[in-house]
Amino acid sequence: MAAFPLPARNGSPSSSPSSSVASPSRALAPSGPSLPSAKSDNQMSLVNLAARQRMLSQRMVLQTVLAARGSDLHLKAARNSLALFTDSQARLMDTPRHLDAASGDIIRKAYHGPAGVGATIDAFAQQVGTTLDLAERQSPRVEDALARLVETTDGVLDALNAATTAFDTVGKAQSETLMKELAAIVASIQTVAREAKVVSFNAQVMAARAGQHGREFAVVANVLSGITNEIDGLSLQAVSLAGRSRSAA
């Protein structure tokens, strides 16, 4: 991968009023809540959180390049991105203990197995932090550090893609298990509904035989029949929902 050119430090880049193309500094400058908060992570699926790490990794590289050019704005933005990336990564690597044994093994192998990507991702985050520290001190070593950081971009993207694939595999397996459990529950409900229909029919027959004395019993039997019809309708809706979820997976 070709390294990003690193112009001499001369403060934050300015843009000409006549320019029709926004400068990189303006394009990447934070304008409001552009990054998701840690609170929103709790509402994000693991596979989406893992996929977001790829976006964050590239954002950090670009922001660090601009910080090394002297932009304090992007130095702060890069540190915020790094903090979010680090917190998200810690959450992802902690997930195996919250999963079933098989799913946990998939994630552990993805990060810590023979071809594990955890060390690559951690080294990338440390390199970003080191480069930002050098940029903040305006150290002459920042250019070398930045060049090394840019060289790791392809490798860390491959690592993050591998992690995302692992979480996607786990998500699909969990979805399949959930669909099987749902199908079993629906089948049980349908069995109970059929039995209730038989009971309701027999009750109606007995009420008819009892004549005047079975009138109240007939009312109860009719209500039971209505309930079983509603159960049938709900079961069909559950089957349809399970089918749509399976198709979307």
Alpha carbon gyration radius? 30 Å
Largest sheet: none
- Overall mean pLDDT: 79
* Annotation field: number of helices: 9
Low-pLDDT segments, ≥5 res: 1-35
Q: Please indicate the percent range of residues in DSSP E strands (runs of 2 or more).
A: under 5%
How would you spell out the order of helices and strands? HHHHHHHHH
What general form does the structure show?
Answer: rod-shaped
Class by SSE composition:
mainly alpha
* Total E-strand runs: 0
Q: How many angstroms does the end-to-end distance come to?
A: 34 Å
Q: Helix fraction?
A: over 70%
Structure explained in plain terms:
The protein has 249 residues and is mostly helical. The chain has helices spanning 24-28, 38-41, 46-68, 72-94, 101-112, 118-136, 142-151, 153-210, 215-248. Helix 3 packs antiparallel against helix 8. The two termini are 34 Å apart. Mean pLDDT is 79; it is low at 1-35.
Summarize the structure.
This protein is mainly alpha-helical. The protein has nine helices and no strands.
Write the layout of secondary structure elements.
Blueprint: H1 24-28, H2 38-41, H3 46-68, H4 72-94, H5 101-112, H6 118-136, H7 142-151, H8 153-210, H9 215-248
Helix pairs in contact: 3-4, 3-6, 3-7, 3-8, 4-6, 5-8, 6-7, 6-8, 8-9
Task: Note the main attributes of this structure.
mainly alpha
